[in-house]
User: Fold this.
Amino acid sequence: DIQLTQSPSFLSASVGDRVTITCRASQGVSTYLAWYQQKPGKAPKLLIYAASTLQSGVPSRFSGSGSGTEFALTISGLQPDDSATYYCQQLNIYPRTFGQGTKVEVK
Amino acid sequence: QIQLVQSGAEVKKPGASVKVSCKASGYTFISFGISWVRQAPGQGLEWMGWINAYSGKTNYAQNLQGRVTMTTDTSTRTAYMELRGLRSDDTAVYYCARVQGYHPFDYWGQGTLVIVSS
Assistant:
């Protein structure tokens, strides 16, 4: 199975800050990587797919980059509504594993 | 609009089985698959498996092999996930999600809480 390791596990930042979450895969997944945002009590919401493609309706302050084994999700201009847990997921092979999650707190 | 609506919460005793449904609307059901993902309390997301809604082909997580069965009913556009031999660590919210090939999980159900307790 492909293991996905996210860092950090928790981050606290202020409104307007630029934050980056990284996701490292134990083997290459090309660009078959997605990012999701999950708020408490809600289903995950797709933010980014194919490593860097913004899902329709998602604010442009979210961006993704990377390929192979190293990926990043960047939020440029953090907003209070961005308080959530973020997960990466590889879609290259089965099982479709997720990272362990990064909780983002907006101060 | 595209929707996946799941069945309601369940409370089961250890050793029992649970069957969660996921009713799809707003898209061509047989053109996509359904994946199931669960989330134990306070924990991350765990991929459970996938079913092709048209062919019924499945792929299950290795740790659930032998206990999980995923099926679809194309006449009612509904997917089902049955988990047998329930244990306390199966307590989780279970989600269904629409999938297609290498594409991401773009639509999700609202989740179904399954509590396993004696």
Notes: Chain B touches chain A through 20 residues (CB under 8 Å).
